[in-house]
Here is the input.
Amino acid sequence: MFSTFNFKKDYNEIHSVSAIGGIQVETFKVKNMFSRRSEPPKEGLTQVDAGTSGIQGEGNMNGFRIFSYFGRANYTLMSKYLFEANVRADASSRFSKANRWGVFPGFSAGWRLSEEDFIKNVSAISNLKLRASWGQLGNQNISGYWPYLTVIGQNNNLSYSYNGSFSPGAAVTALVDENITWETSSSLDIGLEVGVLDDRITLEADYFRKTTKDILVQLPIPSVMGGISSPFENVGQMENNGIEFILNYNNLKFGRDQLGFNMGFNLTYIQNEVTKFRGGDSPDQLYLLREGYSFRTLYGYKAIGIYQSDDEALEHMHANPFTPKAGNLKYEDLNNDGRLNYEDKMALGNTLPKYTFGISPSFKYKGFDLNLLFQGILGVNMYTQNNFTDLDWENRMISTRWRDAWSPENPDAENPSLKFNNPWDSHQSSYWVNEVNFIKLKNVQLGYSFPTPMVEKLGLQKIYLYVNGQNIFSIASDGYEGYDPERNTFNAGYRVYPTPRILSAGINLNF
Here is the structure.
């Protein structure tokens, strides 16, 4: 259900006031039913009622509901000064009554400097605007329908047979935190919009800061708990700070016989940091969650070379239970104790891109149009230890990198010696980390619009032919190994299906 009321009023052509308010109810339900009987009296009878034994029936209903109030008010003074305030209050059935409601306000203001007299006289400036906003959003999108309730399950997997007699069983299969509530994100944005030469050149520049607190996560629990699921918790706080630029040029040539050209460019820089997480006390893991680090920073040993002799390995790892050999990777011993353990691990790189960018040129001439979209990232690290790059077992396809493996005859190799199922070289380390930068031609389309007189003779308004291609090619860093660099950076490359290249052609007819 969605219901709103609206108000809008202008006063003396100076003041403009508008408002909207409403309520919204969302309900999601999943119902299932299953019934079964076996051994019908006659072959071919498939109705459930025809069965004479093995009677079984199941049925259940799951669901959740969100109830919301929302409102927004706008005020404009002389079309120059813009103000907006909004608020929404949401209640989710995924949280207990004591924590069900979340209130999320927001405010914004803008100043159209191009409407001021001291700017209007500058003919080159067609648009100039300053704006700022602050607001909050809530998140309750987690799996499960009542994650705050302790549920006792009863099914065949929890049952047992004693002396040939079936005994139904019941158990708690998931831990819960009864106090979970909304995850809240607060965003601050300060921006500038500029248009010059009748908006031939436009620029949008923004500084943003987003703080997310009470993050809803499921953290790992010890295996000694017996395979029980971990609870959802409100844990941690994270900040994203950055800047964003959107630059566009248009030569404003719109005639069919004129060469029209448009070039768009966007760039975003983000600095991410986990600012609060269990007081800095968190376990070591490959994708690290710890205060003071970027979210899911790669964490492990730093590979600093390859042992050239057994003596070198023994001298370096003299107190280690396992002594590596010539050809094995050499890891940095941070505390110089002659052994490799958790005290030697360090941050190996960020898995969130520092920069993302896009380039979108387009051309038009004599009915033809060509549109391209390039996208890319810079400054991200990917962990690439998988079945293609690692040597876990024999008789399978492996990376060509191993052609340059260490041997006494090839001591300057970039890779350790060629050994299958080698635990020492398989440690989570910088050897498996690649800094990846790439640019991809994400989309390209060439089209042709037939001349209007020809189209009208056919009784049509428009005829447009086009050919389109998606994911045409990628140019990535030399060290990257994999099908496509545009992939999940929280995955080492296991079971990653390559992005398909899609070619299509079509015709649009407007009657």
